[in-house]
Amino acid sequence: MLASQRSKKLKFLLPAVFFVLLLPSQAQAYIGPGAGFAVVGSFLVMFTAVLSGVLALFTWPIRYTIRAIRGRRAFARSRVKKFVVLGLDGMDYALTEKFLAEGKLPNLAKLRDEGSFKPLATTIPSVSPVAWSSFQTGSNPGKHNIFDFLTRDKQNYRPRLSSVDIRGPRRKIGLGKYQLPLGKADIHLLRKGKPFWKTLGEHGIFSNVIRVPITFPPEKFYGVQLSGMCVPDLRGTQGMFSFYTTRTSDNDERTGGENYRVTREDDTIKAKLIGSENPFRTDNSILKIPFVVTIKDQSSADIKINGASYKLKKDVYTEWIKVDFKAAPCIKVHGICKFLLLSTTPEFELYVTPVNIDPEKPAMPIAYPAVYSTYLAKRQGPFATLGLAEDSWALNEKVLIDEGFIQQCINMDQEREKMFFDSLDKVKRGLCVCVFDGTDRIQHTFWRYIDEQHPARQQREQDQQRNPIEELYLRMDVLVGKTLAKCKDKDTVLMIISDHGFNTFRYGVDLNRWLEENGYLKVKDGLRDEKYLATVDWSQTRAFAIGLTGIFLNVKGRESQGIVGPGAEAAQLREEIAAKLTKLIDPDRGQPAVKQVYNALKVYRGPYKGEAPDLIVGYNRGYRASWETAIGQVTDKIFHDNTKAWSGDHCIDHTLVPGVLFCNRHIKTEKPRLMDIGPTALDMFGVEVPKYMDGKPLTVADAGGSKIKQQAES
Hints:
- The strands form eleven sheets. Strands 4-38-27-3-26-11-12-25 form an eight-stranded mixed beta sheet, with helices on both faces.
- The chain has three domains: 1-114 and 121-142 and 170-185 and 193-237 and 359-492 and 672-714, Alkaline Phosphatase, subunit A, CATH 3.40.720; 241-353, no CATH class; 505-656, CATH 3.30.1360.
- The chain is built from 19 helices and 38 strands.
- The protein is of the alpha+beta class.
């Protein structure tokens, strides 16, 4: 029986293997966040990859026999055949309760009535990379080393991604104007700890894991995985859109994107799509693809790129279009993007999504095994691979209108749904996990629709009769209904979870300005408004902020220009700053901006707690670290109105934004935590929970135990 199921899983993967083996040879490449192109190396790397695939084909009977034996032992102790986790990033407990009470979420109401619905405690801080890392490792941040989206570089104080480090090949061979990188790039996941699905695999239990944040680069385990948050675009950034316009008065500065001024000649516009630096050229020239747009009328045009023509219709996204950048003779770098015609008259305006890694011919490791993304692309067509695929910066910068962004989010969720349901169909026994991001992105950008006091409400055009957040919850309820239909087996446990909740983000707090006013930070000669803490005088600075969560001390021996003693002096300074910051009052509104400040050395346990910000700020509702604080820009005041579309957030005190937990079985545990989900899955499969995990298995009813019966017994 088990061997038969293994064979079915093998059939699921074999077509993808053959697809890859049939592809023409190409150089592979790794792209680092903000670091441009870092080539994996020579054709020897491709040969090695093909050889590995061939060896895998011939050795699968031995490997699957061993796993079958392990799996039989594991399933002999298991209480379930399948454990399904549907992650709805950011689904808020209070809003869910409200919509349930109004009768708007019938499928979630069914889960609540027949199983469980509880608030799910998030992490400190309540931000996605931290929370999802605790979900997958079952541990607190002190053990998995992720504390924010960003951290600081200890040498130069500049912000860098907290989850991944990428370095290009060190050696290259010069061939005239070309160069051939040797070896491969070093792409290193900074999240520590072991995901619970890897532990399951060690006991012969198969897992299918789709788009869980902080899984890039993908790790080897018994199963398949598609990476999520922090996968970069083809340019090596976390998402760089392009905006082409004939408008001469348009602002050239775009956060998260670039403006390109174009000229219209009759009905023709010529431009170039920008790629990364060319790793095969000694001059590091930029890869570009020319394209031509021919305007047909006020609402349509044709675009020709890479020798193919496509129709453009105003305010309608194209499908994913494959774009091939020629890097050297016989070497191309493959990407995909969508075009959106915004206007043809009186001015031409064209939006292009960030160029995503092509999942069919990935230029970097976005899946495990590598052929899994190829399998998905062959099955359902191209799909977004960028970690933060929904382009909220284009909305913030008013390149996209509200409807354009909503449609983008819906499209991404529809792609995810196909992958998720494919996994539910293919995996008969084991773990299925899939995270949907639309719940997070829509709430971030449309909270201004439901908060009448939000500063962005009057400053941005919006349809006052519409409620995009309610529409979102209704769509997710439909998704839950479809999922329930595929999880009818009594031996399947289904959990709907979110990593945190949501609230309004009205005002940004410039922590560096507050530190300056209180004598902890010094700006050189009164200079300010430079990014990356460029004007800070480190010889007179004891504390600084960067990222979204907290404050770092400038400690001797830790930071390159540290001045604070690492022992008693640092401990006293932490207590002093925390006490003062907790009393911070917004003078314009007369309300406290901070609920609590946490000392990282006290709230975290584990070998990596010293890598956290020294202090974690738990803001009150309505407040968050300012946009300027995140990138180390010191302004001239502490409080700033948030007028961006990004009007909701969860970067506040963790007690104010619990997530949700639904289950198709009754859960007796009173106060479940996000980090308890992994240990619960292990326990349900009869696998001993590792001692390093902080999470504990939830008390989940066995199959057939009704909620009423369980409540009576309790």
